[in-house]
Amino acid sequence: MKLNEIKDNEGAKKSAKRVGRGMGSGSGKTSGHGQKGQKSRSGVAINGFEGGQMPIYRRLPKRGFNNPFAKEFAGVNLDTIQKAIDAGKLNADAIDIDALLNSGIISKKLDGVRLLARGAITSKAVISVNSASKAAVEAVAKAGGEVKLV
User: How many domains does the structure of the chain reveal?
Assistant: First the structure.
């Protein structure tokens, strides 16, 4: 096989539909857009239009509230930390946000890191995070470690 002999499998590449190129092509004249009207023209924007009936997005009430000041934390579970300690990615003596970032457990700092209680931790770890659940703090204390809130 040579580079100049390489080609696609049969039917792998479909040629573009050439519209508006005469009646014999099957898509000439109106180019597959039917007859007249808004949809046959360019710049059609009728999503959500219900023929003059009040559209559903206006019939239904607005609900909820989006807090612009809400903090978004990167969540880290105990079992994830334990796996990283076992794999040698983390040093149990000093686990902080930068250590979590460097080991690849979290990808972004966001507004901080929150320690969550999924799984179990067996190592005696000192963990410094922005926030932690009560269950997570208890689990770390039970293993002989401590959680410091930054």
Answer: 1
SS3 label, residue 128: strand
> What angle is formed at CA 34 by the lines to CA 36 and CA 25, rounded to 5 degrees?
130
Residue carrying the six token digits 């972004």: 108
pTM of the model: 0.59
By CB atoms closer than 10 A (0-12, 13-18, 19+), residue 43 is exposed
**Cβ neighbours for 51, distance < 8 A, ≥ 6 positions apart:** none
The pLDDT score that the predictor gives to residue 51 is: 86
Which residue(s) pair with 149 in the sheet? 129
- Which residue, chain included where needed, has tokens 């040093």? 91
Q: For the residues 50-78, what does the mean pLDDT come to?
A: 94
Looking at residue 136, the DSSP 8-state letter turns out to be H
Identify the CATH number of the domain in which residue 117 sits: 3.100.10.10
